[in-house]
Amino acid sequence: MSVFSSIFKSSPHGAMGMTTNQVMRMVCYATIPGFITQLYFYGWGTLVQLVLCIGVAVLSEAIVLSLREKRIRRTLSDGSAVLTGLLLALSIPPLAPWWVSVIGVAFAIIIVKQLYGGLGFNLFNPAMAGYVVLLISFPVAMTSWQPIQPMLMHTLSLADTAYVIFTGYSIEGYNLQQLSMLVDGTTMATPLDQFKTALAQQQTVSEILSLPIYGEYGGIGSQWVNAAYLLGGLFLLQRGIIRWHIPLGMIASLFVLTVIASATGADTTYPPVQQLFTGAVMFGAFFIATDPVSASTTPKGRIIFGALIGALIFMIRQWGGYPDGIAFAVLLANMCVPLIDHYTQPKVYGHKR
Amino acid sequence: MTAEWKDIVLNGLWTNNPALVQLLGLCPLLAVTNTFINALGLGIATLLVLVVSNLTISLVKQWVTKEIRIPVFIMIIASFVTIIQLLMNAYTFGLYVSLGIFIPLIVTNCAIIGRAEAFASKNGPVESSLDGLMMGIGFTAILLLLGGAREVLGQGTLFDGAHLLFGEWARGMTVQIFEFEQQFLLAILPPGAFIGMGLIIALKNIIDAKQAEKKVKDVKSVERARVTTVN
User: Which residue ranges does UniProt annotate as crossing the membrane (chain A) (predicted)?
Assistant: First the structure.
């Protein structure tokens, strides 16, 4: 699948043998293991968000296409709007109110993608730009991840979940805060959030990691979610849909920086392996950062692009105000892409640089 | 005379609007339009400075040589801004505090020095004052549109903080349009200003394009009536 590489910028062009629709569909399929794991640990919310987000994505794309007088059916069938909706649905908290998802998806499709000219022209990753809009607009709703299902006092049925998302209350009248209560009646933050709060309370890393929300390799739920996305990502690699440069660059740089920080700094760094299996690292590395439109296009550039994202994630987690920073990191790296591409053009055969 | 005046009015309000077309004075435009009242306060201050500075500059233009015109213009503008600043400090203290640095920064508003250079230094006092007034109204209108939109989207209110500008009686002017559980912070934060401004400019371009299209169509239909053969 070397033809997918952009080494061949001018003719003769190799044919990829895969349409945009097929690529997008493969990426959608590859999220299935992660999606199922998320359903298992975080309840039916992700499924409801999935339907909602994809519906809004397709609808907004159709509206803008009709305003732009483009062929609606043909453009919609490339599947890129569905994928954007899907990625956003997997990123937002499962029980986020419906209007949060609607605003995020509509912003991603209408402003970030279509106003820049549609698929192939957007400077920023639409799903992540939509996510960042939501995160800075509704910080409370966007950080209300429930603890994993087995630890909860109330678990919700599918109908109940939909009820919470659309009205803010479950059928029995519990609000989101009550629903996030653990079996013992207390509440708990997400692993990365908890880590920052506990550090501020002068606890040591090993003390913090012995809390029940941490598993062996990361957050007790998110380690499995990350492993599932890693599996999906490896499938994409094997099929040649994505190339190894960006995920490897990103994971390696995050890992190496964390190792250095843990070895040299005071006891304030979230440990290296846990870094990779908490939050959305694997999802980001294989599904978000590899977006062919907004990522770097040269082989060397892709490694730099990935490494930049990893470094930014490390910095945001270590020193930033937000607990996790995959979306910010991807957007900041997107901004650097023209510069990276400019300086990493591969040498053309027979030419001296 | 009237045709020229009409031209000045149209230029300031629409075809050469300082905010929408010249894109001047964007810094205060984007920074203070988080509420309608802030926008109104800054808009009025800018409007007053524009009118009096345009008038003054057009009156003294024959004594100002080309080489020193910029310092002279800025000094004139700065004096009027200082006057406005002191007046606001005295009579609308709350608004003075909430606008902060952006009142003294009116001096550096390119829309004002731009009009001084492009219009007031070449035209008579009456036309210059009219130009300042119309440019000021055009600028204020965009400030109000953006400020109103951001306030409604961001906090669901309109005219919040009216007492800062009009005194205590205006406290009741605040209209609650929506009740939000959570504010839409993006609209209040700087990115919301940029996105909102972009959308307003896009709207203006749509209206202009529609009108241009109409004109072309009108002309075409007349042509068709005259031409008998199709080539």
Answer: 47-68, 75-92, 98-116, 128-148, 217-237, 244-266, 272-290, 302-320, 326-344
